[in-house]
Structures are given as C-alpha cells and as structure tokens.
Write a structure and sequence with these properties.
alpha/beta, Serine Threonine Protein Phosphatase 5, Tetratricopeptide repeat, D-Maltodextrin-Binding Protein, domain 2
Amino acid sequence: MFRSAFKTLALSTALLAAAPAGAVEDIAPLRVCADPGNPPLSDNKGEGFQNKIAEVLAKGLGTTLEYYWYPYYGRGLVRNTLTAGKCDVLMDVPSDFEMALTTKPYFKSTFVLVHRSDRRYEIGSLDAPVLKTLNIGVLQSSPAREALRAHGVLEKTKVQYVNFDSNSSTAEYPAKQVQAVVDGTLDAAETWGPIGGYYATRKKAPLTLLPMNTLDDGVPLEFAISLGVRRADKDLKQRLDRALDAHRDEIKAILVDYGVPLVRCAECVVSGDLPEHGPYTAIEKAHLDARRDAPQSSPSELAATKSRLAAGADASKELVDAVLGNDPDRVRYLLDHGADPDEIAGLDYNALQTAVREGHLAIAELLLERGAKIDLPDRSGWSPLTSAVYRNDAEMIDLLLRKGADKNRYGDSGWSPLAVAITYGDLARVKQLVDAGADVNASNNAGYTPLMFATAKRADDVLALLIERGAKVGAANRAGITSLMLAAAEDNVAAAKRLLAAGADAAARGADGRTALQIAREKRNAQVEALLGGRPNG
C-alpha cells in the first residue's frame, strides 16, 4: 500500500480529454471507492473511520454519499476504480501517491510495534536484544518488516502473506496478527498505526504501542495521508481540500475516537502529538543480497507438511506455503509428490511468481530447474520478469533473463517488463533490460510505447537512453497521441525539448485533430506552448 507509485499513461490520456481549466463539474453524489471488509479502516457496514470521514465530507460538500466497494489490497486498485470510472475518491492514500491527484494531507501516522502490556518488553530501539528473541508478526510487503530486517530481526519473524480480497478471503484480514498478539500466540507484531490504535482504544485490548517512525533513519515509517482523485479532477480536489479544512474538528474527533496514532504534521489538516521523524536523508539502498533471506529448511515443517498431505491437503497450495517459507527441502518434497508449480494456488500467484515477489532467488532457480513455466502470468497479467522488475531485484531479473524469460511480453495487463522498469524502477533496470534485447518500440494493445511511459514518468535520463537505442519519437498510440502530445499535456518542458531535438513532428495531429501546441494551449501550459511556437513565455 505504501510503495510510491507513478502515474500511468491511462491517467495522462485522461488529462488530454479533460475539460479546460475553470470548468465546473457537479459531484453529486460523492462516489467513494471503499474496501468492503477492512476494519477499522472501512467496511460495508459503514463502521470504519474512513466511512465516518467520508460521511462528513459528503455532508460538507452538500451532497449524498455513494460507495463502490473494492478490496484495497493487491494490484489494480486505481485501474479498477478511479481509472475505470467506478468512483471518484480513494480514501487514505499516501500524499505522494503519483497514480492520482491527492488532496492536502489530512493526517500523518506511523507504523507501530504492538505487544501485550503485561509482557513489559524493554524496546528502546530496533537494535534492542529482546527483539531477536520474540515471535514477531510481520506483513509480507511492509516497510516495517524491511526496517526490522535491516536491524537483524529475521529469524523468528512470522510473515503474513497479504494480498487480501475482503470479498472472499476474510481469514487473512490485515489485523490478523494484532489479534494474535492479543490472544498470546504471537509476542509482538508490526502494523499500520490506525490498526494497532483501534485495538488498544476501541477494543480495549491490553496492548502497548511503540511508534516506529523515529526508530530507523533508512526506511520511512511515517506517512502523510490524503484523499486521491483522478488527475483530471482538479475541481473535485479543491472542493475536498476546502471540506477538509472546514470540518477539521469533526475529522480530528473521528481519528482520536478510533485511536489513530497522530504524528505532528504542520502541513496536515489534523496534527498530532507524536514526534515526527522529519525528512529522510538520501541513503543508498542496500543491495538486495544483503537483506535477502537465506533459504532455510525446517524438518518440523516438513513433517507437518507430510501430515497435512496425508490428511488430504492440496499439494499445490502447500507448495506456495513452502515457497513463502523459503524452504527448499519442502519445495523439493512437494514437487516430488504431485504439486503443480504452475497452479495459482494462492489468491493471485503460483509458486514461481511467489518466489519472485518474495525475492527468494534460490527457490526461483529450483522451480525453474524443475519445469516451472517462466512466463506464466499472475491473475493481474504480470509475468515473473515483470514482477522482478517492479521489485527492482537485479539478480532475479538476471536469473529470469538467463533462463529465457520473454523481455517484451505485455500480456493482458498492458505492462511489459520495460514499461514497469520505466514507471516504477530506475535507469539501471531500464538499461539492464535494453542491454538484454528488450524492444524499445514494443507497444501494448492501446499503442503505448516505452517512450510514452518515460514521458509520462518525466524520466529524462530514460528518455535519452531510449532515443539513443532507437525509439521512434513519432510513434502514436491508438488515439493518435504521441509522446510530444503527452509532454504538452503536462507541461513537461525537458521531454518536449528532447523529443523535438530528436525529430518529433510538432505538426502531427491526434485522432481528434489537435496538435501538441493546441493541447498545451488548452491546458494553459505556457512553457511548452512557447517552446512549440505559441505565445511568448512570460
């Protein structure tokens, strides 16, 4: 949820089709994209704090409230809600969330470490010796898990694999491990502050909450939270900003009532009392090898697996669990006893896809040696290579490329490995793929090319590399939109200059007959307009 994401080309296209600045659009009713089963944040009974705040905002806007229910965990949230036009507002997204236009932050919270108050652990930092002795619940893709790992808290952590579909998989709800701490089956757990705070405040659970935001300088653990709307919905964003300000006291009362740990935040609508970490200094990201869990086989887990199989357990589901456990002996045993490495036995992923997402390099190689299909997509349409690129895992990418992964596969998702490297990764990953032969002109079904993804990302260094490697600057998508038109729509002067220098045709027209200059003029993007020969800048 808290990985910084960048805007997609679908949203850039929406900018091209948006009404001219100043147009006013009715927003009755207020259509909120909400999770139907993720308490205490949101549920279809209207009992989450997000539900209560949505009610306040709708009332403040003088309109009614409607929900479009969609699980917030897993991929495709923005694509299947805002971009699909099903709803207009995402609740509680990071304020730097680049797949949407965000309101001003309305609160800031932190990840917390929770334990039963009667345990009285001495935890003054993430280097506290006691942490390495505790059974600690961690979420699969949590920054708090990453921070704990960076401090050597690895051996006894219990990973909860969360790709939570609240419509069908209620047993894996995100607060599950907090409840386990209450029940005494875990010693401690990391969790997002509003979840831990709810248990301690509203449910009166005997829990101590340790804010984690000031305990690590390398991994951000505090986040300012906003509402998200489509990038073209500037008027709605402004209305929501005004409503947030006007109803500050009501919103604060809701957050306090639900026990949300509130961090000091000068720019937020609601500021709290917890110390703020402040800006994180640029710290070079450690090589994945340094924090990659070593494969570790467990005889007791293997014995338990054999017992479950004898009782009728599904071998393919057991295989995914063994991959999550990074247990090569269990993986080999299950492959020898009928497990299908290609079956999607979890919510969305088969064994190889799971190994890639977890960064389990040795397990991924073992699965490939035992015949796992290297390009089989997950339920979102992403291949293992695409997922490895998203994870920025250079060694996993090398492994998959050496084993023959398709470098240019877009699939039904509309994303190729190169497109993901451009949008979610960095120049090194782009170069890694291009050097391996990725086609710099391959387009998805909508006609978007890598050059268009780079323009939308404002990645000038990537744009330069793609042009150097032969990217066609005049390529247009199925709507006739070129990279230069995308640059014009978002006043991306650097991209426009580079594209023009490489021979982009400023006179080219899209399917609607507009040129890049006309688009820049309609969007009131003065700098690109001047560059394209329009009115003088200034």
